[in-house]
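Q: My labmate handed me this sequence with no annotations at all. I'd like to see what the chain might look like in three dimensions before we decide whether it's worth expressing. Could you predict it?
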Amino acid sequence: MDEAERIQVPGANARRFSLSCSPVRQPDGQVFLLELVTDVTERERLQARLTEAERLAAAGELAAGVAHEIRNPLAAIVNATSLLGVEETLSGEERAHTLGVVKKEARRLNRILSDFLIFARPREPKRLVGDIREIVDHVGALIREDPGRAHDVELSVRVDPAVPSFPFDADQITQVVWNIALNGVEAMDGCGRLSIAVGLSEAQVAIAISDTGRGMPTEELRRVFEPFYSKKPAGTGLGLTIARRIVAAHGGRIEIESTPGHGACFTILLPLGGQDDDGDHSRRR
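A: Here is what I predict for the chain of 285 residues:
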């Protein structure tokens, strides 16, 4: 033996033992084996119970978040339908406004449930070799074509020519880039400078999305990926949570830099390696 070895050994009555063997060289050149055996049964049982408790706590927190997000639109719909129940007291304009409230809150409720289903049952990415330029150009076009949100936004999209094609799920990465870019637009209240820059960082593709908005304090930075945490009045708080999960499923990560009053920069890091569903990198979208 050149290095220490550790193995798990099953014992009687469902007990578990950890056996470690380490070579110990003596001054005269002889080598002895130092063997240590530890009963890890209770430790593993405690770890399993702790994992289960954490899972139940997370499920409870998630259920509370869903209930909180659903309660507001449901209350608005109930109030509106109560008014419609005595429609003889409503003018035509008031009736139309009340119906509009019902439709708006129903759409909001549908959006909350749709985001929750995506969060609860994430789809495995279908990686196909593609050009990331198509993704950022498409998101840039969506922003330019949305004057209601980005009426005074100066948009810059730059892609390093050295960035090669690589395998990724185009639909999912489009969703990630769009969600982060839209957050940047909303942080600037539709007026400012949004930059999407794509380059290489070692063996990764780096998609940096920066804005000149209000920025985020440290406490908000720590919580920005938490489910149902949102500073937007109509936000579900799941957009960035879903984005991080998608990027993690691609083997990547999202980094954030932000200072209050000086905007924010989200950097999506995706590995260049990986395989598509057929193990063939030659196919393109």
